[in-house]
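Example 203.
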Amino acid sequence: MKIICVGRNYAKHAAELNNPIPDDPIIFTKPDSALLRENRDFYYPEFSEDVHYECELVLRIGKMGKFIDQKFAKGYVDAIALGIDFTARDMQQKAKEKGLPWALAKGFHGSAPISPFLPVGHFPNWADIRFTCEINGEIRQEGHTANMLYSSEYLIAYISRFFTLTKGDLIFTGTPAGVGPVKVGDHITGHLEGKKMLDFHVR
Ligand code: ZN
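Predicted structure in complex with zinc ion:
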């Protein structure tokens, strides 16, 4: 399986990092070794001093497809979860300044915690899904899919023009405003439609 991520999909988040609104979705990938399941502890990496959380809605692909029409996109997703796109912001910033790829800043060990999945049937309206991220019990991010620059259906259609999507692939759909650093000892929780999905510690 592969992990496909979308950058700058919420206008307020693009603004908080002084990034322009993109003309097309910004796509990057993480290796499957980045996954962190079952709310296991996240170990702070030694190569960064500024790891940020980015809480995101995650779509799981249920069947193979390419050149998927946007109006059929929903049929390619079998489950939805909440994930964190951990980012070594200091490394990413250096890479951005030099026009170099973000692969290491975004794809290191454990940089993609993923919650248990809920069947896609729990989400009748993809434009009205809400999620939150709390650090030590304090709400830091409030996501609402109505505020996405590119809808989940559009993203599936767009990505599948380039990558063949296969069963089990995960799409991290971008983060809303409110990202920030984590530190050792932090307790990270995430709620999807009010249900606690993420609940783990930084070690
Ligand atoms: Zn992200």
